[in-house]
UniProtKB/TrEMBL annotation:
Pfam families: His_kinase. Residues 153-231 form the Signal transduction histidine kinase internal region domain. Keywords: Kinase, Membrane, Transferase, Transmembrane, Transmembrane helix. This is Histidine kinase. One of its GO terms (molecular function) is phosphorelay sensor kinase activity. It comes from Flavobacterium hydrophilum.
Length: 338
């Protein structure tokens, strides 16, 4: 996360700009035949001291150093007060130099006052532009921090949706097996226990290798076969070369579960799911044989899509025809630092 340092103005900037203003203010004296080196030095000294004062006064009058709120209008009472104070300080500096150097004749006071007002406006505008830019950066960093925290919270909720959803369906499956006195109920319970043990071990992981995800899918398919027998068929033709890529855990389980939720699964009409790779995508394909009365809310696919968007800023692709439904998952290769 980008971090913005506290607002600061370089001392080098203050002194260089003050010296530059002093030199600029003394240029007319260089072309005045009646001016002496002493006049030029005194003129420059007044401008230099005034510029330094104005710099530090405006810096310490910023909201950063006071309890005052930032003004929405650029021209406000603070600027007016700074100009009036600058005039008073300029008068004091001129009188002080006259007394210190015993000068009887100097430029008209109005010239010094106009110079002071001009310097005051230049410093004020430049400093407040710097400060507004600093505040804008702070707001941007704070918005990014808040956005990141919100994304993190949303992603944790997405991950937590997986386990309760699967547990609900698994318990329904177990209930059905118990109702028909299926002798495989004990094995189903053991497999379900093993599956949830793995779930607890990997629930905090954002990504896992495809190889491990396929192992999860194999366990899940066993649990499905215990219920549907030959009514459910999965053809896994995934390219072994892609096994080292990664996807969010339980992605394939959720997609398979989604297929079963919306389609007829029976011995008379088996649901055949195909799993294969296509370029940099993993494709899960099923025939469309929709159940009656089951409306798709899109929550499952949206869950998966948001997980990919959060982790790698990629979206899943959905390809649907009258007879085939495909979901294409982007495979992730550079995930070791994720």
């Amino acid at each position: 996360m980008e971090k913005i340092k506290g607002f600061q103005v370089s001392r080098k900037l203050i002194w260089i700009s003050s010296v530059a203003l002093a030199v600029l203010a003394s240029i007319p004296k260089l072309f005045d035949a009646a001016s002496t080196p002493g006049d030029i030095v005194i003129n420059s000294s007044i401008t230099l001291l005034f510029s330094i004062f104005i710099w530090y006064y405006n810096i310490y009058s910023l909201p950063k150093f006071s309890s005052q709120r930032t003004h929405t209008s650029f021209f406000n009472w603070k600027l007016l007060f700074s100009v009036v104070l600058g005039i008073v300080v300029m008068v004091i500096l001129v009188i002080g130099h006259q007394e210190l150097f015993q000068i009887s004749k100097m430029d008209a006071p109005i010239m010094f006052e106009l110079r002071g007002v001009l310097i005051n406006l230049i410093v004020y505008m430049f400093l407040h532009l710097l400060f507004q830019n600093y505040q804008t950066q702070q707001m941007r960093v704070e918005l990014e921090r808040t956005h990141t925290m919100n994304l993190g919270a949303q992603y944790e909720l997405l991950k937590q949706q997986v386990n309760p959803h699967f547990l609900f369906n698994s318990l329904n499956t177990l209930k059905s097996m118990v109702d028909i006195n299926d002798p495989m109920s004990s094995d189903f319970i053991l497999k379900l226990s093993d599956f949830y043990r793995f779930t607890l071990e990997s629930r905090k992981l954002d990504l896992i290798p495809l190889r491990e995800e396929l192992q999860i899918l194999d366990s899940y398919v066993y649990l499905l076969k215990a219920r549907f027998e030959d009514g459910f068929i999965l053809h896994n033709n995934t390219d072994p070369k892609q096994y080292d890529s990664a996807i969010p855990p339980f992605t394939l389980q959720l997609l398979t579960e989604n297929c079963i939720k919306h389609n007829v699964v029976s011995l008379d009409k088996p649901l055949e799911i195909k799993l294969y790779t296509e370029g940099d995508f993993l494709v899960i394909e099923n025939p469309i044989q929709l159940k009656r009365g089951v409306l798709s809310t899109g929550v499952g696919l949206d869950n998966i899509n948001q997980r990919f968007m959060h982790l790698v800023h990629k979206e899943i692709e959905i390809d649907k025809t009258d007879t085939i439904f495909k979901v294409k998952i982007p495979l992730i290769y550079d995930y070791h630092n994720n």
